[in-house]
From TrEMBL:
<keyword id="KW-0067">ATP-binding</keyword>
<dbReference type="Pfam" id="PF08544">
    <property type="entry name" value="GHMP_kinases_C"/>
</dbReference>
<comment type="similarity">
    <text>Belongs to the GHMP kinase family. GalK subfamily.</text>
</comment>
<dbReference type="InterPro" id="IPR006206">
    <property type="entry name" value="Mevalonate/galactokinase"/>
</dbReference>
<feature type="domain" description="Galactokinase N-terminal">
    <location>
        <begin position="2"/>
        <end position="49"/>
    </location>
</feature>
<dbReference type="InterPro" id="IPR019539">
    <property type="entry name" value="GalKase_N"/>
</dbReference>
<dbReference type="InterPro" id="IPR014721">
    <property type="entry name" value="Ribsml_uS5_D2-typ_fold_subgr"/>
</dbReference>
<protein>
    <recommendedName>
        <fullName>Galactokinase</fullName>
        <ecNumber>2.7.1.6</ecNumber>
    </recommendedName>
</protein>
<keyword id="KW-0808">Transferase</keyword>
<keyword id="KW-0299">Galactose metabolism</keyword>
<keyword id="KW-0119">Carbohydrate metabolism</keyword>
<keyword id="KW-0547">Nucleotide-binding</keyword>
<dbReference type="InterPro" id="IPR013750">
    <property type="entry name" value="GHMP_kinase_C_dom"/>
</dbReference>
<dbReference type="Pfam" id="PF10509">
    <property type="entry name" value="GalKase_gal_bdg"/>
</dbReference>
<dbReference type="InterPro" id="IPR000705">
    <property type="entry name" value="Galactokinase"/>
</dbReference>
<dbReference type="InterPro" id="IPR006204">
    <property type="entry name" value="GHMP_kinase_N_dom"/>
</dbReference>
<dbReference type="InterPro" id="IPR020568">
    <property type="entry name" value="Ribosomal_Su5_D2-typ_SF"/>
</dbReference>
């Protein structure tokens, strides 16, 4: 149902934010490292107006779910991200009660940052409605606070930064320690393919927060502020499984740095190495994802493929020869789904 059908009038303002796919740099963002995401065409759209009855009215067109809440109420499900974003903004400005309508074609639970897109779209809409003067980085940092404090996921800053400032035409090189960033072109002659494995996960219920705690424990043992400061030689000083977690982060940061000057062929090899590290050292993959990645890596038009997003299910990303993405998807999904998978094409649409 539309905003008009739910609230009886047209919205005052409509804003959107994209999902993202991460090409390299997984689980490095909360470790002060480097990431290399790009925005995807799919977006979350938020339409808003001021509520006249003192309550926030939040409606998801995709879930066909409505929640009517006081500002200090107890939102559930998707509304945690929406009202959480409003409530972190309240620390900066007076925010009136709102009517909020959400629609999205960013797949949920697939590792494409549907939650970050929702948070950024909500904050962007309120920023423009009230002329708060927030820039893209401000919006990303507030969205991250909403995820931490209201969704219970202690995420890094990559997802929100990618949704707020990235481009679908370029890669965003982001230093998550300083927030220095640069848009750089994708390897010439190649395009990005994203397939959903069909294996759903929710970060608050996965091993995400456990992995973050393991990285913090490794830093405590090594006496450093973040794993960005660690060297490969430090890995031997750590007990299992902290040694494996640290090795993934250290080598993943190195892969991002190497990718900046790599040939397309080497870029693909780095993606393959990244997947193996996510699977074996970080233990954050999934049997269905591994099977899909294996099929992608075996295809003649694929340079490299890996799990993308935090893990434990979700999507795979591949670098493929330009003009071949849909055919590669058809080839790979035919075999994957015939073997019992539930994969589907996400990008290109």
């Amino acid at each position: 149902m539309s905003f008009q059908e739910i609230f009886g009038h047209q919205p005052t303002l409509v804003r959107s934010a994209p999902g993202r796919v991460n090409l390299l740099g997984e689980h490095t963002d909360y470790n002060g490292g480097f990431v290399l995401p790009t925005a995807i065409p799919q977006e979350t759209t938020v339409s808003i107006s001021v509520s006249e009855d003192g309550l926030d009215h939040i409606y998801s067109a995709d879930l066909q779910e409505r929640q009517d809440l006081s500002r200090n109420g107890q939102p559930e499900g998707f509304a945690k991200y929406v009202q959480g974003s409003v409530r972190v903004l309240e620390r900066k400005a007076s925010i009136p009660p709102l009517n909020i309508h959400v629609s999205s074609n960013v797949p949920m639970g697939a590792g494409l940052s549907s939650s970050a897109a929702l948070e950024v779209a909500v904050i962007r809409a309120i920023n423009d409605l009230l002329d708060l003067g927030l820039n893209g980085v401000d919006i990303a940092l507030l969205a991250q606070q909403a995820e931490h404090q209201f969704a219970g996921v202690m995420c890094g800053i990559m997802d929100q930064m990618a949704s707020s400032v990235a481009s679908t035409r370029e890669m965003l090189l982001l230093d998550t320690l300083t927030l220095d960033r640069k848009l750089i072109p994708l390897p010439a002659g190649f395009e990005v393919l994203v397939l959903d494995s069909g294996a759903k996960r929710r970060l608050a219920e996965s091993g995400y927060n456990t992995r973050r705690a393991e990285c913090e424990k490794a830093c405590e043992i090594l006496g450093i502020a973040s794993l960005r400061d660690a060297q490969l030689s430090d890995v031997d000083r750590l007990p299992d499984p902290l040694n494996k977690r640290a090795r993934h982060v250290i080598t993943e940061n190195a892969r991002v740095q190497e990718a900046l000057t790599a040939t397309a062929e080497r870029f693909g090899e780095l993606m393959n190495l990244s997947h193996a590290s996510m699977r074996d050292d970080y233990e954050a993959s999934h049997v269905q994802v591994d099977a899909l990645v294996e099929r992608l890596q075996a295809h003649q038009d694929v340079l490299g493929a890996r799990i993308t997003g935090a893990g434990w299910g979700g999507c795979c990303v591949a670098l493929v020869k330009a003009g071949t993405a849909k055919q590669v998807a058809a080839d790979v999904l035919q075999g994957f789904n015939a073997a019992g998978g539930e994969g589907r094409l996400v990008v290109p649409e």
